Amino acid sequence: MSSEVKAAYSSRASDYVEQLGSVASLHPSDRALIRSWAARVEGSILDAGCGPGHWSAYLAEHGNVVRGVDQVPEFINHARQTYPDVSFELGSLDQLSDGDGSVGGILAWYSLIHNEPSTVPAVLEEFARVLKPDGALLLGFFIGAEVEPFDHAVVTAYRWSPDAMSHQLCTAGFEVTETHTRTGRNPKPRPHGAIIAQLKRTARA
Fold first, then answer.
1. Which class does domain 3-199 fall in?
2. Which sequence spans correspond to the domains of the chain?
3. What are the tens digits of pLDDT across the range 31-87?
4. Residue 89: partners with Cβ closer than 8 Å, 6 or more residues away
């Protein structure tokens, strides 16, 4: 996350929490997908780019061992105060504090949408570093016909085609196992995508 993105979210953190800071306010198909994915994860889950912590808390409520990490201090402060039984950490997704092969699954739910495309490979490589062999990744993003920027409510974001994102994942050592798409609700019916991928056992060989 760039300093510009960090500053933009810091300045609008309270608005974000009010509008999107609860699982109940989000699409039911997203809840179902994340829950079914997490139920299959073996080991702890890292909620990478956890925002105000609602998905971390949701997974913890369903029995997962989970830790959230985000670069926006206002989000981490809110998460710690609102969900005191869940662990949250201030940190960058391209320099995680986790040891090699120590995490069972990573939820990156719209965590990379503001990354300039050339910076995405480094984050995916860091995800691959901390995941166990055969570890699971669930990545949510906005879909477009090609990789292109658009005017997001907070700061410039990027659309990715499922094929382009899958290529990035494969290059980082993942095998794509599922791809999901849906159209968002009005007034902004943007196409949404999600990819489930598994780290290949030979990725770090």
1. alpha beta
2. 3-199
3. 999 999 999 999 999 999 999 999 999 999 999 999 999 999 989 999 999 999 999
4. 67, 68, 69, 76, 97
